[in-house]
Design goal:
Blueprint: H1 2-16, E1 24-26, E2 32-34, E3 48-50, H2 80-90, H3 99-105, H4 109-150
Parallel strand pairs: 2-3
Antiparallel strand pairs: 1-2
Length: about 150
């Protein structure tokens, strides 16, 4: 009970720092707004809103389950023709949201990290494939050179 009372005093002090406007609002719903509380609120199910952003040295995002992360990107690698088509038609990569979508809805960090990692895995898969193809072509070229030298 003492900790609750002390916390309430600190919050009241923080809120009263600005006589003209609230700078911190702790709602009874548990939602917290930091900044000009007359202009901002916590939308939807979000519990914290910080006006003008957050500066921090580290952020750790916890996953609720393995379904929140994709370990099957290699099984879904798009063909380069599909990537080229997506870029020419949509101006963005396969499975990535458009700029309009991101502007309208924002994005979830975990989901975006998963999508970006899938893009990197696809790049590596294509790079490995190109390396293998290049090795075969080099061997064929050497064989052709040997045949030409014999003539």
């Amino acid at each position: 009970m003492k900790n609750y009372f002390f916390t309430a005093i600190l919050i009241s002090f923080a809120i009263s720092l600005s006589a003209q406007q609230e700078i911190l609002l702790l709602k009874t719903s548990g939602k917290v707004v930091i900044g000009d509380t007359t202009l901002i609120s916590t939308p939807g199910d979000y519990n914290l809103y910080v006006q003008n952003g957050i500066l921090t040295e580290r952020v750790k995002v916890a996953l609720k389950s393995e379904e929140d992360w994709s370990d099957d990107a290699f099984t879904k690698t798009p063909a380069l023709a599909e990537v080229k088509k997506s870029i020419s038609e949509n101006q963005h990569l396969v499975d990535m949201p458009s700029a309009k979508t991101l502007t309208e809805t924002g994005y979830d960090v975990t989901t975006m990290d998963s999508k970006l990692l899938a893009q990197i895995e696809w790049l590596w898969q294509h790079t490995i494939s190109l390396k293998e193809e290049n090795t075969v072509l080099k061997k064929e070229l050497e064989a052709i050179k040997l045949l030409l030298e014999k003539k």
